[in-house]
Amino acid sequence: MSTREPRRILLVDDHASVRHGLALVLAEEGVGDCIEASGRQEALAAATSEPPDVALVDLSLANDDALALIAELCARNIPVLVCSMHEEPGYVRRALAAGARGYITKREAPRELARAVRDVLEGWMLISPRAAEGLR
Fold first, then answer.
1. pLDDT of 16-31, one tens digit each?
2. Would you call 92 helix, strand, or coil by DSSP?
3. Could you tell me where the DSSP H helices lie in the chain?
4. pLDDT at position 4 over 60
5. Would you place residue 2 in the very low, low, confident or very high pLDDT band (cuts 50, 70, 90)?
6. Nearest to 84, CA basis, from 72, 98, 75
7. CB atoms < 10 A from the CB of 112, how many?
8. What is the pLDDT of residues 25-69, one digit of tens each?
9. What mean pLDDT comes out for the span 101-121?
10. Is 36 helix (H, G, I), strand (E, B) or coil?
11. Cα 42–chain centre separation
């Protein structure tokens, strides 16, 4: 991880209350400052104006293709961690194939979310136990 602080985290979720909750968790855990986007266009605009250090992306974006967004962010060298309610192996595989460096479910504890973001910022690949269960 570079010495530049604070880290910029792009939160992409179509539910404002979820984005707010994620931002609170990451702030409380001292992970970094959050930029919020409700969908693909907002996320790409935010990533263009001030590139984040990492993006936390939901797979279920209303009227948007989250997998295309993941690929676009990765093409800009922005590491992506998926945070989704989907735990099925097919979702995990598709997200990783699109370039995501990690996959965590929304059922994980807040500290696990913070740890996952930190791990991806450090260059690690991470799959939460619930999401990895079906990959065996």
1. 999 999 999 999 999 9
2. helix
3. 16-28, 40-49, 66-75, 89-97, 110-121, 129-132
4. no
5. very low
6. 98
7. 16
8. 999 999 999 999 999 999 999 999 989 999 999 999 988 899 999
9. 94
10. strand
11. 15
Bond preceding residue 129 cis, omega within 30 of 0: no
**Residue 53 CA to chain centroid, in angstroms?**
11
* Structure confidence at residue 119 (pLDDT): 95
Integer angstrom CA distances of residue 101 from 1, 21, 73, 80, 122 = 15, 22, 11, 6, 11
Tell me how crowded residue 6 is: count the other CB atoms within 10 A of its CB: 12
Distance CA 70, CA 33 (A): 20
| DSSP three-state, residue 14 | coil
Q: Are 104 and 117 in contact (CB under 8 A)?
A: no
Task: Return the DSSP state at 77.
Answer: T
What distance in Å separates the CA atoms of residue 28 and residue 69, rounded to the nearest whole number? Answer: 27
Residue 81 has phi, psi (to 5 degrees) of -115, 120
What percent of the chain is predicted at pLDDT more than 70?
95
Reported residue count of the chain is 136
